[in-house]
Design brief:
Blueprint lengths: L14 E2 L2 E2 H27 L4 H40 L6 H10 L10 H16 L3 H16 L2
Antiparallel strand pairs: 1-2
Helix pairs in contact: 1-2, 3-4
Amino acid sequence: MGAVLVEQPLGCLYRRGGLCRMDEEIEERIDSYLEMYGRILYKVSGKWPEHGIDIAGRVFEEISKDLRSEMIVEMRRRDYQVNRDERNCKIDGVLATRKQRETLHRFGVKNIPDDLSLEEASDILEELIDLSRHGNKDLLLREIEVLNEKWQRR
């Protein structure tokens, strides 16, 4: 009798009890989607029994889009943090650039210390730009005032 070949699905990391780990993850995801759909259908059918299935399908689609968007945002946030951490490891001890100093001056920051690091300048500019973009003028002015007071005492 010849050997029986069992074809392993692409992307299968390891098998346990005949199921691929990826298969298990897919099964869990399907179960969670079905549970979510069931809860939506139950709520919608109570209010609109004649159109419950159609409405539940549309609500489920919207919730799925929201969940996908949240996942993408979280993945991007994690990638940004990892990349930022890697970038920061490479720039330790490097002083702020001329362009960073000029930008700080344009915001109204005075007495910028000579030993201001690239990383610290980046963090400060990120905060100032964020406050500026979101129209938080009072907070922006307060932050600039705090920096000026801090650096004047040096």
